[in-house]
Design brief:
The complex is a heterodimer. By secondary structure, chain A is of the alpha/beta class. Chain A contains twelve helices and 20 strands. Chain A has helices spanning 36-47, 61-68, 96-102, 125-135, 154-167, 183-195, 197-208, 228-233, 241-254, 309-319, 350-357, 376-393; strands spanning 2-7, 11-17, 23-30, 54-58, 75-80, 103-109, 141-146, 172-174, 215-219, 225-227, 259-264, 268-275, 278-279, 287-288, 291-292, 301-304, 328-331, 360-369, 402-410, 418-427. Chain B is of the alpha+beta class. Helices cover 29% and strands 26% of the residues of chain B. Chain B contains ten helices and 18 strands. In chain B, strand 4, helix 5 and strand 5 form a beta-alpha-beta unit. The radius of gyration of chain B is 19 Å and the shape is globular. The chains are: A alpha/beta, B alpha+beta. Chain A: Residues 186-266 form the Hydantoinase A/oxoprolinase domain.
Chain lengths: 432, 341
């Protein structure tokens, strides 16, 4: 049997499911502020579950930490780009108080890559060591961000080794692990991952001892799960995971792969789209504490309560992907306040159910230059293999991890046939 | 007028409007401009008539893939490399900077670079909007030679292009893009103060600032009703019952209602998200989006036979279409300014 837990600001919901995904029980307990692990424990106790093999937990702690500027580590930021990316320095445009809470110091050193092997500049190793040494005693974590590192992470790894040689064992977040191109957003996300690493480790340790015998996972913003170990390294991936789980749960409860979902909360309704069983992403990615971070989160339209029917209808209509109408599914703690839509049984606990039924996910993206169209297939195979590897790293069962989405985008204004390839993989949580 | 950290957001939004749905996103360029203004202070905007006749004016901008700019967010030294080489080639100091292209990212980039060089920015540009080709400029139409042109990257690798026409310039710069890893900074059609008044699109900088806060009445307000097989906007509210089709390449190039053009390139066609107020680029169009479709005329020279040959409907593969009369009764837009009348 498996359990899903959704720690909300007011209540913590939990659901017990059998191995075929049937909902056996749901419970609700009040949430105590800033005690995510204790809230999960209370909910599981009330669920009276025995012989759990899997627990999946949705947390909002990362976002809360950032918005309240609490439990954040001070981060030394190393950007490897040389002159190729100085027009916007690290942490530029951050809210001053968040920057002050997080920034231990930042530097741009020479190095970094490009679209092709010949574009690479050697890493200024001496500058990395000097910076690491200068930050010793001030920085509680390091963020390493290399130009085009999602294409080749070698220089980031080289820099991490140099930092370790200077300051010993320290949390070091590497931007290549986040996958997507977009230097500033990837850098901001890496800095936040480093800043949240202490908080995340504490939560991971707490959750890890909660259910001996069960594999424990946490939800993430793209509607998939990750292991505690993965979460402790990339806590930012949990941004947007609350709404993502609700969308997944609405799909699981109705058997729909494609739907518009209204999640009715105490103060407002969040409307999002389920597409192929997963949340449709927000255009432009996530912002946290006013900082663009590019994490994949669900695209939502929020409507305040009390609900104006016309306003909700417009939100639903705006999210329809095409002229063919998708069904509306209405879930969440306040679902009975909204007439429209399908109201599935157990919809009040859609977030907890969504967590319980979700697979572990992995995403990979790269830009490749191809001699001709015939080469796309082989390049895409490689990208899909990487996406599978990322999913397995996040805790998916390697034997059952499959590609759930792959696409290609032709890049404009480049003479060669450059193509952006993206793939997402997912598999059931590994028991081991 | 100055562009400072207070006026930059309006200017950047105006640049996005003048991108006509393309020209590269202002998202990164405007942040680069903000940092340059914070580091170096405001940029003085000068009028064509106030320029010394012999002053060397350097048009500048970037070319390349917006996907590359997302990663290579540009450096601080490109304008220095361009200026140094131009001064060497022309044997005199550069006295002012001008945006090669006001629409999209390059409008903001010009502000960043003027701030870094401590140069005034001419209230003009080469296009009065965004166009895909670097030879689609007013300077080209007015017979200014594009060369010597200078192309460089952030690390000071510099290429000089000599003795070519506008279309050859386009061809050589595009082919150098591959070697430069997908992004370059460039200056071409360098001109003298006395030429600015007749050979550029005037008033572009102040127009962008103005458009950042005030747009003319839209052609239609509604929702995107089709985004995959062509783009359709279905009217809502006062426009209920109307349906218009948008033609788009890398920019929006035409708006059609019942087969008649409401706007057509060289007109600027901007989509504004009515909920957020954000400017919507071609690749951001999706079903259900609530938008206003706004038409702006661009510099009158683009409506002459020579202008239309270089950047009219047929240059964008549209045959049998033409921009409707510039000032139909009640149309609140005047040529060359885009200001509400």
């Amino acid at each position: 049997m498996k359990a899903g837990v959704d720690v909300g600001p007011t209540n913590t919901d939990a659901a017990l499911l059998d191995d075929d995904g049937r909902v056996l029980a749901t419970v609700k307990v009040p949430s105590r502020p800033d005690m995510p692990v204790a809230n999960v424990r209370s909910a599981l106790e009330k669920l009276k579950a025995t012989d759990l093999t899997q627990v999946a937990v949705g947390l909002r702690g990362s976002a809360t930490s950032v918005t309240r500027r609490r439990e954040l580590r001070r981060v030394a930021v190393l950007r490897i780009s040389g002159d190729s990316a100085r027009a916007v320095r690290p942490l530029f445009g951050w809210p001053a108080d968040l920057r002050d809470a997080v920034n231990a110091g930042a530097v741009i050193v020479d190095g970094g890559g490009g679209l092709e092997r010949d574009d690479w500049t050697p890493l200024d190793r001496a500058a990395v060591s000097r910076f690491a040494a200068a930050m010793a005693g001030t920085a509680e974590a390091y963020a390493v961000v290399g130009l085009f590192s999602p294409l080749d992470a070698e220089q980031e790894q080289e820099a991490a080794e140099l930092i370790r040689a200077e300051v010993g064992d320290m949390p070091i977040a590497l931007s290549a692990d986040l996958g997507s191109l977009g230097l500033l957003e990837r850098e901001n996300a890496t800095i936040l991952d480093a800043a949240l690493s202490g908080f995340a480790q504490t939560v991971a340790d707490g959750l890890g001892t909660l259910c001996p015998g069960a594999a424990v996972f946490v939800t993430r913003g793209d509607g998939t799960l990750m292991s505690l170990e993965h979460m402790s390294r990339h806590p930012g991936l949990s941004l947007g995971s609350g709404p993502a789980s609700v969308l997944r749960g609405a799909g699981a409860l109705t058997g729909l792969e494609d739907a518009v979902v209204a999640d009715v909360g105490a103060r407002r309704v969040r409307v999002g789209v389920l597409s192929g069983g997963f949340p449709e992403e927000a255009v432009g990615g996530a912002r946290i504490g006013g900082v663009p971070v590019g994490f994949r989160i669900p695209g939502l339209i929020k409507v305040d309560r009390p609900v104006d029917d016309a306003e909700l209808a417009e939100a639903v209509d705006r999210l329809q992907p095409g002229a063919d109408r998708l069904p509306l599914v209405t879930v969440g703690g306040g679902a009975q306040a909204v007439q429209q839509g399908i109201h599935p049984e157990h919809g009040l606990a859609a977030g907890a159910i969504g967590a319980a039924v979700s697979p572990v996910g992995g995403f990979y993206e790269r830009i490749v230059r191809l001699p001709d169209r015939a080469a796309v297939a082989a390049a895409m195979d490689a990208v899909m293999e990487e996406a599978r590897a990322v999913a397995v790293l996040a805790g998916a069962d390697p034997r059952q991890t499959v590609i759930i989405h792959a696409d290609e985008t032709q890049l404009d204004y480049l003479p060669g046939p450059f193509v952006k390839l993206r793939a997402r993989a997912a598999g059931p949580p590994s028991r081991w | 007028m100055d562009i400072d950290t207070d006026t930059l957001p309006a200017f950047a939004r105006g640049c996005a409007v003048l991108g006509s749905g393309g020209g590269g996103t202002v998202a990164i360029a405007s942040v680069a401009a903000m940092q340059a203004l914070e580091d170096h202070g405001p940029v003085r905007v000068v009028q064509a008539g106030d320029l010394d006749p012999d002053l060397l004016v350097m048009p500048a901008g970037t070319a390349g893939s917006s996907a590359v700019m997302l990663e290579r967010v540009t450096g601080t030294e490109e304008p220095v490399h361009l200026r140094d080489k131009v001064e060497q080639l022309y044997g005199t100091r550069v006295g002012a900077l001008m945006a090669s292209e006001i629409g999209g990212a390059n409008g903001c980039m010009a502000v960043a670079w003027a701030a870094r060089l401590g140069l005034p920015l001419v209230d003009a540009d080469g296009m009065s909007r965004a166009f895909p080709g670097m030879n689609q400029t007013v300077m080209q139409l007015r017979g200014i030679t594009p060369t010597p042109a200078v192309v460089c990257d952030e690390r000071g690798r510099v290429l000089v292009i000599e003795h070519v026409t506008g279309s050859w310039l386009e061809r050589l710069v595009r082919s150098s893009l591959e070697a430069f890893g997908g992004q370059v900074a460039s200056t071409e059609y360098v001109l003298r103060g006395r030429q600015v008044a007749t050979a550029t699109a005037l008033g572009s900088v102040s127009r962008a600032v103005h458009l950042g806060t005030e747009l003319p009445a839209p052609l239609i307000t509604g929702k995107i009703a089709e985004a995959v097989d062509g783009i359709l906007v279905e009217g809502l509210g006062a426009d209920q019952g109307r349906l218009v089709r948008l033609e788009a390449g890398s920019e929006f190039v035409a708006v059609l209602e019942d087969g008649r053009p409401l706007a057509c390139v060289p007109d600027v066609i901007a989509l504004i998200d009515t909920r957020t107020g954000e400017v919507v680029q071609v690749e951001q169009v999706r079903y259900g989006l609530r938008v206003s479709v706004v038409r702006l005329l661009c510099d009158p020279i683009w409506y002459t036979p020579e202008g239309l040959r270089l950047a009219g409907p047929e240059a964008f593969g549209l045959t049998g279409l033409h921009s409707p009369p510039p000032s139909p009764p009640g149309f609140p837009c005047r040529a060359g300014t885009g200001e509400a009348s």
